[in-house]
Structure formats: C-alpha cells, structure tokens
Amino acid sequence: MKLSCQDVDRNKIHMKKVPYRHSISKVLGVTLFVFLLFSVSISAQEDGAADEAATEAAGAGDTAGDPAKGKALFNQNCAACHALNRKMTGPALANVETRLSEDEGLDREWLYKWIKNSPGLIASGDSYAKKVYAEYNQAAMTPFPTFSNEDIDNILAYTAAPPKTAAPAAAGADAAAGTSGASAAGGISNEIILGALALVFALLVGMLFLVNKTLRRIAEANGVVLEDDASPKRLPLWKAFAKNQFLVLVTVVFLLLGSAYFAYGWMMQVGVDQGYQPIQPIHYSHRIHAGDNKIECKYCHSSARVSKTSGIPALNVCMNCHKSIYQVADETLEEGKREYGVDYNKEIKKLYAAVGWDEENQKYTGESQPVEWVRIHNLPDFAYFNHSQHVSVAGIECQQCHGPVEEMEIMYQFAPLTMGWCINCHRETEIKVEGNAYYDKIHTELSKKYGVEKLTAAQMGGLECGKCHY
Amino acid sequence: MASNKKYWKNEAELNPNDSIVETLKQNEFVEPIPVDDFLGDKESLSATSTNRRDFLKYVGFSTAAASLAACEGPVHKSIPYVVQPENIIPGVANFYATTIANGFDFASILIKTREGRPIKVENNKDAKVAGSANARVQASVLSLYDSTRLQGPMANGEPTEWSVLDAAVKAKLGSLKGSGQQIALLTQTYASPSTDRLIGDLKAEYSNVNHVVYDAISEDAAASAYEAKYGERALADYDFEKAELIVSFGADFLGDWQGGGYDGGYAKGRVPKNGKMSRHVQFEANMSLSGANADKRVPLTPMQQKIALAQLYAKLNGTSVGGELSENVQKTIDDVAAEIRKNKSGAVIVTGLDDINAQTVVLAINEMLGSKAFDAASPRYVRQGNVKAVQKLISDMKAGKVGALLVDGVNPMYTLPNAADFKEGVEKVGLSVVFSNNWNETTEVAQYTASANHFLESWGDTQIKKGQYSLVQPTIKELFDTRQFQTALLTWLGSDKSYYEYVKETWTQSILVGNDWNKALHDGVYSAAGMTLASSADADPENTVSAEVDKEAVDVVEEVVAQSGIPIATAINSLVNATSGGGVELTLYSKTGMGAGQQANNPWLQEFPDPITRVSWDNYVTVSKADAERLGFVNEHVANGGLDGSYANVTVNGVVVNNIPVIIQPGQAIGSIGLSFGYGRKVGMKTEMQTGVNAYPLYQDFNSVQAATIEKASGMHEFACIQLHKTLMGRGDIIKETTLEIFNTKDHSEWNEVPMVSLDHQEVPATSVDLWDSFDRTIGHHFNMSIDLNACTGCGACVIACHAENNVPVVGKEEVRKSRDMHWLRIDRYYSSEDTFEGDNIKKDEFDGLTGDKGSLSGFGELEHPAANPQVAFQPVMCQHCNHAPCETVCPVAATSHSRQGQNHMAYNRCVGTRYCANNCPYKVRRFNWFLYNNNDEFDYHMNNDLGKMVLNPDVNVRSRGVIEKCSMCIQKTQKSILDAKRDGRLVKDEEFQTACSSACGTGAIVFGDVNDKESEVSELVESNRMYHLLEHVGTKPNVFYHVKVRNTIEA
User: Fold this and answer.
1) Which PANTHER family does the UniProt entry name for this protein (chain B) (predicted)?
2) How far is A268 from chain B (nearest CA, A)?
3) Are residues B683 and B814 in the same domain?
4) What are B924-973's pLDDT values in tens digits?
5) What is the CATH number of the domain that holds B760?
6) Exposed/middle/buried for B65, CB within 10 Å: 0-12, 13-18, 19+?
7) Is there a single domain that holds both residue B264 and residue B307?
8) What ipTM was predicted for this assembly?
9) N or C, fewer C-beta in 10 Å, chain B?
C-alpha cells in the first residue's frame, strides 16, 4: 500500500508538471489570444454585414423567411443527411432554391412538394425527382409532412444565407483565451518569482564569499593567525566512524535494509503499467466523445454489459456518427492543434481510410484496413476478469477503475490493475442486491451468518483464488 | 600403507593382455563424443577468425542486449472488427446445431463457437436419435484445425486452381456423356436426402453414372439381411431402453456396432428403477465395451457364436440343431432361452457377426419375439455400403470400363483389403478426382486431389433414422481454399445454385411439408410428423399384437420364413456348420478412440486411452492368456513403469501383417484374437501420429471374422499404457457392487456399508470421525457430482470433452509411457481376479496367515492376475474436490485452496511445483506439467501451431511448465451460469450447472449440480441408498460421489 501511495504521489507531481512544461506554447497562447481579440471584432463586423445582406435578400424575395429559425430547423431535421456546402447522404443545400430555379427551372412549390412528400413526387414521375433519387443511391428522402410552408421558407432562407457561426466561436475563443491567458499569467509570475529567488540566492552566496575573503584579508593584515590546524590530534570523523565497528555494522544493516526496501519497491512495480499511455494509430479523444459530447461509455463499449471483454468498438460503431460528422467544429480543431498538436479532421480521415469510406461518393469502397490499437489494459492470462459482472451486476461506474476517462485526451491506464488493488475493492465494496432475485436468499442468509447489514464482495466469496484464477 | 588390492569392474580386466581393456583404459569416452554434430564442420571452425575471446565478447554483449531488451514490456495490439457481425459479441459463446456425418460417425450435435471459432462439441438434446457425441465426435472439432489439412486443390501432387480442376472434370464428363465408360462415384455413406437428390440429378444428366457407396468398415451383412427381409437397404433400429433382456452375439452395440449411439438407451434400462433393471448377456470373442458392461459374458469364438445363435433359435421354437458347444455354454443358452420365453417382447437379440445368415436369424428371432426394443419399421441409414458394388467397381476399373472416378469421404487405398487392385484400376481410369481433407494414401494415386471442407465448414443434411432428419450447417467459413463435394458437383452440373440453396430447396419441397426452415436449422433436427407416430406411439400396440400371436411360435416362424428373402432353415444350417478354418479366429473391430481411422491425425484421439486395455497411441492384437502362454507371448512391466509386449505376425489367407504388438487380454475367447482398424496410417501424417499397424489388409471380403494364423515375432514393443494394475485386489470399497437380488431384498447398510475406523479402540463409522472442523456450506451453491456406475459404459466421451473444455495438453507417447499423461478425468477399468469381484472380496477376507492355502503372501499375488473371463468395472475418476482435502494442507505456498461452493481451487500462477499435493492425494488425480507443452517443438501437437491453437478455450488458462493442474469441476462453466443468472436477476436453473463431462455424458451417468438446491437432480441422487464416496475411510469428504454398481445376475 505504501508503494501505491508513492505511485500516486509521483503521479500528482507528474500531473502538476504538465501545465508548466511548454512555456513556449504559453507565449504562443498569449499571441493567439491577442490575435483572437482582433479576429472577433473582424468577424463580428462580417457577421453584421451578412445579416444585413440576408435581410435585404429576404426583403427582395417574395416570401421572407427567418434564417435563425431556419437554422434551428435545419440542424434538427436535415443535418443528419445534408450539409450546406458538401454532398452527404443527400445533396449540398447551400442556395438550393436559386440553384434549382436557375438550373432546373423549379420553383419553391416544387420544393414544398418534395420536402413534404418526396416518395410521392418520385412516384408521380417527376423527372428531376427521379433523377435525384437515382443519383443518391435510390435512398428516398424522409418525408416531412408536418413542415408548414413557413418552416420550409425559414429553412430555405437559412440555406440561402446562413447566419455566421462566429458569435459562439468568438465566445468560445474568449473562454479559451481567458483560460490560456490566466494560466500564462500564472506561469510568468511563478517563473519570475523563482528567477528572482535564484538571483537573490546567488547574490547572497557571492556576498558571503566576498565578506569571508575580506575578513581573511583583514585578519592577515592584522597579523591574526588563523587556527587552521588547531586540533591535529583529533581523528577525522570518517576514520573515527570506521573504527567504531558497532556503528559500521548498524549503518551497513540500515543501508542493506534500505536498499532492499527500495529494490523491493522497484521490483514490485515491474509489470505494473499504471499511467501507460501509448500513442495510438488514430488519435481518439475520450475527452471530446465522453466528456464534451457526453456519449455514454457503453454506447461504444456495448459488450461490457454482457461479455467479459468491454470490447474495442468496431469501426462500424464509429461510422454511426462519423458518417455525418466529417469534421470537427473550427474551435475544436483549433484547440486540438493548439493543446495537443493534433488535427482532428485528419484523424477522422484516418477512420474513413480504415473503414473504407469514400467521402466523395458517400459510399463504402469495401477496402478496409483494420485499426491496430495498442492495448492499454493488459491483464495477465491467468487472471479472469469479467466486465459484465462488474458493470451490469454490480453497477460499478466505468470511471471507478478506468479513471476520469471523460477528461482524458489520450487514454491511459488509471488503476494499477494489481491483485492487491482488486482484492481491496472486493473487501470494501458492498454487493448490490436491490432488485436482483439471485441474491435474495443467499444475501439474507449470509448476512445473518456474518451479522452484518450489507455483505461485501469478499464475504460472498470474492476473495477465493478460483474465482479469478482458472 | 598402500594397499595391494586390485579393484576391477569387469572380469576381463584381470587379464592384463586383454586388448579391449587396454583400449578402453586409454579412452575415457567409450563412444566418441559427437562434437562435430553440435559444433559443425571442424574445418570451417578452425578457419574462422572468431577466437575464444571474441566469442566471450559476443556472449557478453548478447546477454547484455537481451537483458536490456527484456526491460521493455511487450506491446500488445488489439484489433477490433471493421464491421462487427451482428450475432458475435466478443467474449460470448454462440451455439449452432449441426450434424456430423463422416461416413462412420453420425450424430446431431451443437457446436460452441467463440469469436467465430468452433471450439467445442456438445450434445444436441433436441435430437431423438444420435443426439450424443462419442469420443471421436467430441474430438472432431480439433480435426478442423489440423495443420496437415490440404489448403487447396492439387493436380498430380502439385498445387493447382479450382478453375483448372473444374475445367478438366467438365471436359472429361462432357466427353464421357453417352459413351460406354462409366462415371463412377465412390463415396462414403451420406444418408443425405439432398445428396441423393443431387446424385439423382447427375444421373439424369449423365446416364452412365454409377454411384457406389463404400463403408470402410462394412455392415453389408446386416444391411443385406434387412434388405432381403424388408426390401430396403438399411439397418434395423433398436431401443435398448425398452429391452428387459439383451442377448448379444458379438455385437458391440455400446461401441460402433451398426453406427453406434445405442448407449444412451441402454444405460437408461440399466439403472435399477422400482427394483427392476435390464439384463444383458453377451457372447463374444474380443473383450468389448458391451461385454465389459454385460451381466453375463460368455467368451466364444465367432464360429461358436454362430452355433450358439442357431441353438438359441432352435430352442426358442422348440426344435433342435446340431453343433458342438461346451457344457456351460449350452447351459447358458438354455437359461437364456428360458428367460426369453418368460418375457418374449421384453427380449432383444443382436449380433455383430458379419454373416448374412446370422443377421437373418436375428431379425427373424426379434420379429418372432415381437421385441419391443426392435424397430424394423423405421430403420437407420447410417451404413449403406455395398461390398459387391465396390468389388464390381474395382474390377470395372481394372477392365478400363471407368472413364472418370470421383471419390469422396473414403480412403480406399488405406481401407481396402485389396488396395493394390484399386491402384491398378485407378491407373486405367481416365480421370480420377479424390476429395479429401488431408493428403492420404488415395490422393497419392489420384490425378486430382480436391481439398474438401471439414464438416464444420459444410452445408448438408442427413436422415440418420427413417423420418428423423438433421441439418449440417457451417460454423466457420472455409479456412482454406476448399470445397465440399456437393458444391463441386453442382458446379460441374453447371448449376449456379449454392449447396445451401439446394439443401433448402430439398427440405422445403419434400421434407418440411410447410414447417419452418429456420426453426429446423435452429434446432438442427426435424422429425417428420408421421414418422414419430409410427416409431413411438404405434410401436406398442403393434408389439402387443405380435406378442399374442407368438404364443404359437412355430406358426410365426413359418410366417417369418415366408416373409424373409433368405430361407431361415438354410441360414440356420449354415450357422450350425460354421467352421473356424483352422488356426485362430481373428475378429477385427473398431477401437473406441479411432473408429475407422478418419481422424488418425487427431492428437486427442491418439492419446485417448482405450477403455478396455487402457493403451494409448497404439493398436495391438489381443490374445487370451492361455493362447499367449502357448505361443510364448509376454506382457511385462519394465523399470521405467512402462508396459512392453511381444510382437506377433498375423497371416490371413496368405496376407501377412508383421510386427503387431500383443496385449494379453483377459476375457478373450481362447482360440480367438482381436485386432483393431484405424491405425497404421502413414501418408500425409505427422511422424508422431504414425502409430500402430494397418489391419485393413486382413479385412478380406469385408468380413471382420477371419481364419488366421499367428506366430511370435522377435523384439518387444513399448506400449503407452496408463493403467498397469488390472485388478481391484479385493478392495471392494473402491468400486462397490452388489447384485440386483441383494439390492432388492436387503437393507443398504449391508450392500453399501459405511467403512468403519477405530476411534479410541472402538469401531465407529468413518464418516463420524473428523480431524478438522467443517465449514458451514449450507448457504449459497454447493456443487456435487454424481457418477452412477450402473449407467457408465466407459465410452470415454467425457475424457475428450474435458480435454477440449480445459485445454488439457497432449504429451505424446513417450511421456504417457512414463505415466505423465495429463488427463484430468480418467476412467479406471478393473478386472476381477476370481470370476467375480465378490469372489475377490471373499478371497481377501478369508486370508489367514502368511503362508498356506489361504496365506496372504501367495494370495495377494494371485489377486494381481485377472481371471480368464473376468467381471469388468469402469470408474471415472477426476478430482474429488474433497471438503477436507489432503492436498490443500500440504501446499507450502497455498496454491490450492477450497471454496465455499465445494470446488477445490488450483491457482496455477501461485504454484511452485513441489508436487506435495500430488503425493498427498489419495485419488491420484493431480497432474504435473513436466514440460512446456505449448509452443514446444518437442511436443508437436495442436498447441504447437497457430491453427491448432484455435481450438483452445479462451476462458481457461493454458498452463506452463512446472505447475500442477487438475480438474476444476469446470469452474469457468459454473461461474458463467451464476453470472448469467445474476445478470438476469433470477435463480440458477438446475440444468444450467454442467461440467464438460456431465454435459458430454450421453448415458446420464455423470450428473452435476448444486446440492443446496433442493429441487436439483443431484440433491436427490446424494440421498440415494446407492450413494458412496470413494475411499470413504480416508475421511476426505469428497464432493464427488458414486453409485453402487448393481449387476442383474438373477438367472432364470
């Protein structure tokens, strides 16, 4: 236990160090902050201009739509399959109305019909409807019969002139700049203090040396003889020590014990890879997925509920979302580059390459390349561990063993995964019996036997060798 | 003072002029040390620039580098699916119902797969026939991962493409269309409706197709007799559960007789219920499983069996026939006849004699008796081979009448007695294509070798018994570039259908009659509605009717004669006049472990000890003790604990098989010898697996009974036999047994005595004395295992199931010989030394003094020798999971400990290999890993290659060198059942608790469960009067208990 405390301490130190490590990046951070301050105002200006333009355009058009409402509707209903400037499951929708009227001669009425009942329009034999249907892999667009014409107007207004997303970006930048600025300021002051202290120490040392030198010179000048060899008969300390055999023996014993202690400590950490944080083939951020986006752990690691392994998600699980999410928000991208030196968009491209997703044509090519993740939690073969026992039956949070995964940009091993660590938890954790008919009888009987209210896993037999080793 | 004594090691040294002594004196090493072998060429060694110092430097650097490199932990990669299949969850097993139909073994089974890999065979409890897997079927999953499998088609021994093969076959078939030459198909028995239809399609396309079905071990006589009588080529079915008296003439129906699979029904009738159990009389030459389980076993040579059968027939219908038999055999037959007369419909007669007359007579007797166990209405289709057709085909081939020969599922070059003729014939065939899993004797002579699928990669269907259908579905995609025969036929017919579609079509059109295909596929089995009625419900009234008619037996016999194709009188006549043909009578049989030899490359089966002789890695000729003494054969135990045996040469009709090792077999009929098929394969096999001798050359005219001569050959054979002590030595408390009469009439304290021990000079029951304080085990699960010695036939399916489930390593012949076998579960086989075990007990109890007539000195010596026709008992022994385990108290590192659930745990990672536990175990069930058995070229079995390792159970450790291992009572399975229940929030159902052995046991002998669950089967069994613990007087309080064996010795 002593050891693990040390480990934790070391870890703390390690964790503290991180913010101070890249002072250069802090300086860059400040620069960025200053730059961003300007950029906010620039984009705000643009934003205003665009808004004006939009209102003008709306005014000029026959029916006015509200681009802000349209945006909300778009994100809610359309964004799963459509983007403004990019082909997805469905076509890109920026200026769709203008495009249709110019290229195909179709008016807004056609769009109303299409959006409210596209299969109907296809069935009616409309030539362009059929063409679009054929072009997009014969995947019919979900009809939206509940949309009013006004809703559609709003959406079209948004597609014609989307309101810039600069405002939230600015806010985000503000926040980011604020934090980075604060930390940068902290860093500078600390360094200055340290530097000043070092300077003071150096000055003191220098002064002492000078004073000493001066005093000696004065003494010499005054004819005072310094009693350098005042006690010639006294043995040097180390010789006296060497002659005292008892002391030597005691010291040797202590030294041996001490080194044994440290040697033991060192050896006990062999194979304990707490904090193991390998570089993965795809930079996957649990912080973004589990933290920012609050995706439930078991959405991806679904087999943790039923199987002994938690399962590294198959790439098709990634594609459930990333089929639509082809890039991260600009500020996230910036943050990634700034904080972690990672271009998240490139990482998504790596996923596409691995799963064989052709972004251009929105199709699977069938040429996949399985991802070779580096395994972080390596339990030895002779230890049997079952996730579902802990996750489904005991209802333990993933974080209890895996740590604050939602804060981890790069996943690392949080727990030591030693037997002592397992056993300790089994000793302390009470069985979760509520609503589990399996435990009803055995729990009442056992708790009566042990005279306790709640049984621990250990009392249920969770310390028996064969429960984990077979 | 200097001594003048001269010390000498050898008399020759006394002669100062002996030149040899002089030379030896000068030469320290008598044999030259093979320095060149390990140092390489001496010249290049001296020419090298590396001197000794450099060498030391290199050693130093490399050691340093190695230790540096070792500092870094290995990087483990984890590769998930790109697209995860919907029904696969990593870490969760899936089960698929399928069927094995390899021409020898037919069984409906479940396959357990993990992450898409088949890893274990389980019984299909939904199946009405053949739902339990024998040892070979249990092991068949390992044959899927055989590293010697063919990985693609071959042409004249060179790898080729399927397209080339297809083109060649299509061209040849096209050219043969309408020509005078045959297109011959030489195949195994499929018993498959879809394959029959497919071959029908082929015949429709090419009129000159000749389909010849060939069984390596033929049941031609039985099938022909049935065909002559009932007009269909099949085998009558028997339900031994309904039989009250079973009389067998050389039929090993607990083995592979007529396709096997009869042990489940037999065992049900053997467990005494309401004071009744079936009685089994066996007349046989070799000691077979059936004979070992019989209540009365009469050793008779095949010739004598024929006479006995004829006499029994005559006795039953009141006539008399000639034929000489010894007096007591005569008496036995009289008794049997009398018993049959008492309960005609309850009796059933079976025979394994390869003689159409014997088979005809048996069918006639069963019909005459109206036997309830006899089912001729819905026969079995598992052996359809036709000997005449095979011989005709070979002669046609030799005559050049065969244009193309397609072979599937058989290995005629190995299994044909006249393989040379076949070879000659093949050379004259225009195109020969052999479908095979492995490179073998037949692929060697064929032009094209088509790499065939394993059955776990194939689609298909079977009709094992009339109206009982089952489906074969793949449980894994083809591992290699292989194709099943039916798919190839479809391709050659130009069909674009897959065989799956073809099977489905057959089923929906003609089998399912509107029932759901998906359900049939899910269940793996399907009973045609009409058929189940006919076979079960209708059977009884029919039989009662015939039983009434039987009162006038003579009339019935005449009717039978009228029905039968072969006149019964002729048959009887020929049986009575049977002759031995001089010399000894050889009975060829199939061994429980190897069958016909299809899976000879399967290390599990090679290491599987024969249930009777307990010899692994060999076949041998079995000889009676009297004959052995006459001919000078010996079996002896040598210093390293191994068994050695003489060699014999056996000659049949001029064909000699040389150097067959000899086992002296108690119970072998004098004047008869036995030899098993399936061994002696060489081509395409790993050297370790090339064991035994090939018996097929002696299988002349496909008759398993041959007149042979046997003579001693020089040399001694080293056996790998795992049980050298054959008898129980009168220790009746190890296997307790009694007779049905005593069982029914006396209190259990008499026939199931609790052993007494002395406490304070008072005799008290052993169970009342305890060295330890017991824990309270009344709460939670407490696992117990029940083994019913009445139901256990010794078949050994559990041994292989345990191997597969628990990753038990294969150690090889040499190690087994050194008693280092690793089986967690062994089935001990004991012979009685007197005529019965009871006789042994009495003899031992009556020992009086050291010497004299009843002296223990000579008496114990005598008890070591089994009787000429001993009683046999089987006893499965695995870790007994003692509540007061002697092993636990002696472990210096506490690596083995007890759980509250009754299991004795073994923590391999804690074990340091002192082996104290093994020494202190009274049951000798702990196994020590003397070597690293995986990834070790010295043990080149399945754990030494990536393919073979796919069969490993991922839930169980693979043990390393230097640790003890033993039965864990399948804790991985009990833990899983508990976890499933916890996850669902319910109690565990009784049937969910299973071990590998209990779920593999087709006879219900092994029952496992929670004794604290008062509803469970095992908690009922533990209360039984027949329950006893092994070595109860030791006081270990085991969690495995046995049931007293009851023998039905009540004679009429």
Assistant:
1) GLUTAMATE SYNTHASE [NADPH] SMALL CHAIN, GLUTAMATE SYNTHASE [NADPH] SMALL CHAIN-RELATED
2) 14
3) no
4) 999 999 999 999 999 999 999 999 999 999 999 999 999 999 999 999 99
5) 3.30.70.20
6) exposed
7) yes
8) 0.82
9) N
* B77:A374 CB<8 A: yes
Tell me which of A270, A368, A452, A464 to substitute to probe the interface with B (most B C-beta atoms closer than 10 Å): A464
Per-residue pLDDT, B574: 83
Percent of chain B with pLDDT over 70: 94
**CA pair distance B902, B1038, nearest whole angstrom:** 9
Q: How many CA atoms lie within 13 A of A182 on its CB side?
A: 5
- Residue B390 sits in a domain whose CATH number is 3.40.50.740
Contact between B312 and B368 (Cβ < 8 Å): no
Residue A388 has its nearest CB partner, among B909, B979, B988, at B979
Establish if B680 belongs to a structural domain: yes
CA distances from B514 to A440, B218, B528 (A): 46, 37, 11
Both B571 and B588 in one domain: the answer is no
Neighbouring C-beta atoms of residue B1049, cutoff 10 Å: 16
- Residues B564 and B593 placed together within one structural domain of the fold: no
Contact B154, B376 (CB under 8 A): no
B413-468 pLDDT, tens per residue?
Answer: 999 999 999 999 999 999 999 999 999 999 999 999 999 999 999 999 999 999 99
Residues B241 and B344 in one domain: yes
- Residues in chain B with CB shorter than 8 Å from the CB of A369 are 82
Same domain? B346 vs B330:
yes
Q: Which helix (H) or strand (E) holds B875?
A: strand B872-877
Q: At the topology level of CATH, where does A61-164 sit?
A: Cytochrome Bc1 Complex; Chain D, domain 2 (1.10.760)
**Type of residue found at B291:** G
Per-residue pLDDT of chain A (470 residues; tens, 9 = 90+): 344 444 434 443 343 333 444 445 454 445 445 444 444 444 444 444 444 444 444 444 445 678 888 888 888 888 877 877 777 777 888 888 888 888 877 888 888 888 888 888 888 888 888 888 887 777 778 888 888 888 888 888 888 876 555 444 444 444 444 444 444 444 567 888 999 999 999 999 999 999 999 998 888 888 777 666 555 677 788 888 888 899 999 999 999 999 999 999 888 888 888 889 999 999 999 999 999 999 999 999 999 999 999 989 999 999 988 988 888 888 889 999 998 999 999 999 999 999 999 888 888 888 889 999 999 998 888 999 999 999 999 999 999 999 999 999 999 999 999 999 999 999 999 888 888 889 888 888 888 888 888 888 888 888 999 999 98
> Would the CB atoms of B80 and A313 count as touching at under 8 Å?
yes
Domain segments of chain A as ranges: 61-164, 418-470
DSSP H helix total and E strand total for chain B: 38, 42
The β-bridge relationship of strands B1040-1043 and B1027-1028 is: antiparallel
**CA-CA distance, B642 to B634, in Å (whole number)?**
14
In a domain, B501, yes or no: no
Cβ(B596)–Cβ(B415) below 8 Å: yes
- Contact A446/B780, CB-based, under 8 Å? yes
Number of structural domains in chain B: 4
Does residue B189 fall inside a structural domain?
Answer: yes
Residues of chain A with Cβ-Cβ distance to B971 below 8 Å are 466, 470
Of B77, B955, B978, which is closest to A373 when you measure between CB atoms?
B77
Same domain, B647 and B717: yes
B982 with A439: Cβ contact below 8 A: yes
Out of A380, A446, A461, name the one closest to residue B899 (CB): A461
Whose CA is closest to B844, among B855, B836, B835, B831? B855
Minimal Cβ distance to A373: which of B78, B957, B984: B78
Cβ neighbours of B79 in A, within 8 Å: 370-373
Q: Which domain holds residue B374?
A: 221-381+546-576
Residue B509 lies in a domain: no
A374: nearest CA partner in chain B:
B77
Instruction: Give the number of A-B residue pairs with CB atoms closer than 8 Å.
Output: 150
Same domain? For B622 and B706 the reply is: yes
